[in-house]
């Protein structure tokens, strides 16, 4: 059985954190939230056991998903679970193992992800995207 001592939610989007906080309250979960860009966080060593993340897919800003993965693999001691577009599977695996020093990179499942038009740069009302759920193990 797993014992979770402390959960931290980090997002740059204040509205996303407010929604997460309301959902956690409904489920009676104790989660601390930090509003910031993860690239501006200062981490000292491996501070967390597990990272669960849904990074930007890197469609608008090329490589954004890889920025998140690089940081996650630096701070997690046990595992990183992350969503990435299926079309980038080979690139994600190669980057994790070669560039970010993961000891393993495994696709757990492929999902369909409906992305609604949330931002001004979204051109379509909704887009259906094939997404992989990955498990990475840091070295």
Description:
The strands form two sheets. Strands 3-4-6-5 form a four-stranded mixed sheet. Strands 1-2 form a two-stranded parallel ribbon. The protein starts with 7 loop residues before the first strand and ends with a strand. The chain is 26% helix and 37% strand. The protein is globular and about 40 Å long. The chain is of the alpha/beta class. The chain has two domains: 1-36, no CATH class; 43-138, Rossmann fold, CATH 3.40.50.150. 15% of the residues are buried. Strand 3, helix 2 (64-75) and strand 4 (76-85) form a beta-alpha-beta unit. GO terms for molecular function: nucleic acid binding; rRNA (adenine-N6-)-methyltransferase activity. Residues 6-62 form the Ribosomal RNA large subunit methyltransferase K/L-like methyltransferase domain. This is Ribosomal RNA large subunit methyltransferase K/L-like methyltransferase domain-containing protein. InterPro entries: DNA_methylase_N6_adenine_CS, RlmKL-like_Mtase, rRNA_MeTrfase/Polyamine_Synth, SAM-dependent_MTases_sf.
């Amino acid at each position: 059985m797993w014992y979770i001592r402390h959960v931290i939610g980090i997002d740059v989007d204040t509205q996303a954190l407010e929604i997460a906080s309301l959902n956690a309250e409904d489920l009676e979960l104790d989660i601390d939230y930090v509003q910031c860009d993860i690239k501006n966080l200062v981490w000292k060593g491996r501070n967390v056991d597990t990272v669960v993340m849904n990074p930007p897919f890197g469609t608008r800003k090329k490589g954004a998903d890889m920025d998140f993965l690089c940081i996650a693999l630096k701070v997690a001691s046990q595992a990183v679970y992350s969503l990435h577009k299926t079309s980038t599977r080979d690139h994600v695996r190669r980057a994790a193992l070669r560039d970010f020093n993961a000891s393993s990179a495994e696709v757990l499942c492929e999902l369909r992800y409906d992305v609604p038009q949330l931002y001004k740069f979204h051109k379509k009302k909704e887009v259906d995207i094939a997404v992989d759920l990955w498990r990475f193990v840091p070295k």
